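Page 37, continued from 36.
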C-alpha cells in the first residue's frame, strides 16, 4: 500500500512539474518597436470592433501587438513561416509579470507574463528596446 502511494505521489509530482516546466507558449522573440501597422495584414482580422493597436513589435519572424484590450503574440513556425500561431492574452487575465532588462553582454530583454488559466508566456525584445516603457504600458493596462 505504501509503495502504491509513493508511486502515485511520484506520478502526480511529475505531472505538476511538467505543467510548470512547459509554459503556455515558449520564448517568442518579438524584436523591437516598429511603426503601428507594419504587420497589420497578419493581425487586423483578429481585431474586434473598437479595438485599437497601441504598440507593435516585430522580430525577424515573430512579433507582438499591444492593443487597447489585449496582448497578441504571433509566432511563425516551420521553415517557410507560413504556419503562424497567434496567442491572445486579455489584459484582465494577466495576474503578474516580470521584466528583465538587457545587461552589458546580453542581446535581449525579457518579459515573463503570467495569467489566470493559461500559465506563462515569455516575450523577448531585442537589445535597445525600452523595456521600462513596456513596463509602464503594461502597468497601466494590468493595474490601471
Amino acid at each position: 500500500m505504501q509503495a502504491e502511494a509513493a508511486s502515485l505521489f511520484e506520478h502526480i509530482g511529475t505531472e505538476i512539474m511538467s505543467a510548470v516546466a512547459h509554459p503556455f507558449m515558449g520564448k517568442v522573440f518579438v524584436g523591437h518597436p516598429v511603426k503601428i501597422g507594419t504587420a497589420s495584414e497578419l493581425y487586423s482580422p483578429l481585431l474586434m470592433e473598437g479595438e485599437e493597436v497601441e504598440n507593435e513589435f516585430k522580430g525577424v519572424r515573430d512579433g507582438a501587438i499591444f492593443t487597447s484590450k489585449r496582448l497578441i503574440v504571433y509566432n511563425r513556425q516551420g521553415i517557410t513561416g507560413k504556419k503562424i500561431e497567434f496567442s491572445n492574452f486579455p489584459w484582465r487575465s494577466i495576474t503578474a509579470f516580470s521584466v528583465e532588462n538587457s545587461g552589458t553582454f546580453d542581446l535581449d530583454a525579457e518579459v515573463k507574463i503570467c495569467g489566470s488559466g493559461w500559465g506563462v508566456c515569455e516575450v523577448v525584445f531585442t537589445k535597445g528596446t525600452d523595456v521600462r516603457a513596456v513596463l509602464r504600458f503594461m502597468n497601466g493596462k494590468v493595474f490601471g
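The first helix runs from residue 2 to 21. Flag for discussion at group meeting. The CA atoms of residues 27 and 38 lie 22 Å apart.
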